[in-house]
């Protein structure tokens, strides 16, 4: 057995991927993220860096990496973020080192980010990024869901609906679109996308050696 093939036995069988979910607020993205993480225990949720204050029950390093504005900007200027954006006056970003290390080890990482972050990820690591946009079945359904959550007043809901229009304008930048009418069906579709992307030829790092060895072994059988 060649040393190259011996090394391949200890290498990841494939490179990991970044599964990016985006949607307008109220379309069900958070629910789908939670359910796909339950279904796929090998899928890890990306932990963002943020300058906003921790909310009750949130833990540094688990929910977010809470940093000062100065610390965030220093990290950004050093090129330590895969993507970043300012949302409602706070800064959010994805640490590059941890994510890229996971991908190199064959691990998949889930992102719950907006179109700005998704665009930056795709520009920086196009071969690693799989973007899925979650749409509500209608504008009326989106409004009803925001009201049913009972988390916001009428003024905030109006702002979220206005923001939804901006988010939806970018659906065409994504690789896949799921209309989230029934959560169970949407989850099955999302799982199918993940399964297919995991076996994409360009991600299977052991295939070149495997196919090459087969061609060598079968070479003498060619006419």
Structural domain tally: 1
Judging by the overall fold, what is the CATH architecture?
Answer: 3-Layer(aba) Sandwich
Quote the distance from N terminus to C terminus. Answer: 25 Å
Helix- and strand-based class?
alpha/beta
Order of helices and strands: HEHEEEHEEHEHEHHEHH
Helix content: 40-55%
What Rg, in angstroms, do the CA atoms define? Answer: 21 Å
Count of DSSP strands = 9
Instruction: Determine the number of helices (DSSP H or I, runs of at least 4 residues).
Output: 9
**Beta-strand fraction estimate:** 15-25%
Output mean pLDDT: 89
Question: In a few lines, what is going on in this structure?
Answer:
Helix content is 45%, strand content 18%. The chain is of the alpha/beta class and 223 residues long. The chain is globular.
Provide structural commentary.
By secondary structure, the chain is of the alpha/beta class. Helices cover 45% and strands 18% of the residues. It has a single domain, classed as P-loop containing nucleotide triphosphate hydrolases (Rossmann fold). The protein has 9 helices and 9 strands.
